[in-house]
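Need tokens for this chain, all 266 residues.
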Amino acid sequence: MAGYYLLIDVGNTRIKWARVEADRLLPGAPFPIEPAVLPSIQTAWGSLEKPLGVALSNVASERLEVDIRAFIKGHWSMTPFIAKSQDQGFGVTSGYREPERLGVDRWLALVAARERSKLPTVIVDAGSACTIDLLNADGRHVGGYILPGLTAMANALVKGAHQIQEAQDIGDDCLDPGADTQEGMANGALLGLVGAVERVLYNLGGLGIREPSLLVTGGDAGKMGPFLRSPCHIAPDLVLEGLWLTLKADRSLSLTFGQGPDPKGD
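Here are the structure tokens for all 266 residues:
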């Protein structure tokens, strides 16, 4: 294996990672965050040669970050670069009153979106939570929204209603009225998130944002993308792209990866 950099994105429920070799981002298989996650870490990275550098972003527990850092230190005798949210950088200005409180995954997605395009952009991260962030043409983060993701919506219904059974995978995604409780829950959750994104897009004119590009990332991006009426780009590794940009800046690297948006429309 040629020299490479290792990127690690620790989310709320799973860990995504990728190698960067030369100018290519090479995603690995994500794995869930479990109480005993070290065996999964060993399986994913234990056989890899020592990287040139490691970058880590984390929105999960501090304990998990400590465990990952300990693995990197013990396995490769390295200390990873830890990404943090900033008030300004990479052509982006945070819209948070306290910029350090913006989730680092959202910050990295903003950084990657700005690198992809200087157009105003709406960034939807459809994961365990669904975030919608707005970036105007001059790189100012206008703010955003946080909603429960598809699974969280279904779980809330199960928890709050005694006669609703645990949500199950019903197969094909659609926005049709459900013919049973499971379909009603699944289709209703998807309808809610798609409707929220469409409403945000409808309201953009009042914020002075016109003709934005729409980026959709996260584990449920593939479920939402086909139902959005506005043309969108599915960008499954947007946070990792932003993490690579921040690592390059920290190391003063000149490498870039040649991976453009994957256009998806309805």
